[in-house]
Write a structure and sequence with these properties.
This protein has 9 helices and 9 strands. It is of the alpha/beta class. Helix 6 packs across helix 8. The chain is globular, with a radius of gyration of 20 Å.
Length: 303
Amino acid sequence: MTEETQAGFVALIGEPNAGKSTLLNRMVGAKVSIVTHKVQTTRARIRGVCMAGTAQLVFVDTPGIFRPRRQLDRAMVSAAWGGAADADIVVLLIEAHRGLTEGAKAIIEALKAREGTQPVALAINKIDRVKAERLLALAEEMNAAFPFAKTFMISAERGYGVDDLRDWLASQVPAGPWFYPEDQIADLPMRMIAAEITREKLTLRLHEELPYQLTVETERWEEKPDGSARIDQIIYVSRDGHKGIVLGKGGETIKAISTAARAEMAEFMGRPIHLFLQVKLRENWQEEAERYTEMGLDFKDGD
């Protein structure tokens, strides 16, 4: 690798559901961070690697920053700020139609208090939901609240403005060798990506608070001679009554979840996947350090 290359870490921060995972997936060109209509679905610091000319951008997709109530919440928020502190550049995402919310104000105040040396860019997302005049007014209001290095108007879902943001990030990262091989899109272990895919399907299928009361772990991964893989996963629920909800009448819910997750894993990995799911009761999984490690979080961060 010559010294002409650049590489750096980019942290995406913002409130839950601001579109951080969608933007990461758009930048990387593959689905490495789960995207659902539910908030707080990103738990681990999932990194996606994006090539932009001679620059390599390593995205740290942080959990949404919100007011934590439980130990798991606190660990997620700590992971988000940890990801921002370690990055070369920070991108704050806000939703155009929601504007400068109380949550966004709190994040800005925290950014001011941290006084990081890295530049902070503003990305106003979901611009297709509001009129141009309101966008300009919001950009002025945001820049009056914080000295952003650059402001971008984007739609992560549709791709508007994403190339401009990526090119600017590429121009800002320091010179140096790449961190990862060019064809490696994520440094997250495949076992964890597989677990995230299944958890996404559970989140989409189930409603209310249940998705936050469960976690998925890849217990076993077996490579087959024909190139396929057998993946055994456990879905841990915190209440006995939740097992029946996950299984569904006659096992139809778990079958549908398994079918959808298996199809996505096969597409993502480019080979056949044999997926086997079990549902187990683990009442206090949110208090167990081992469960946090499986999600790439630090249990102590929740204290």
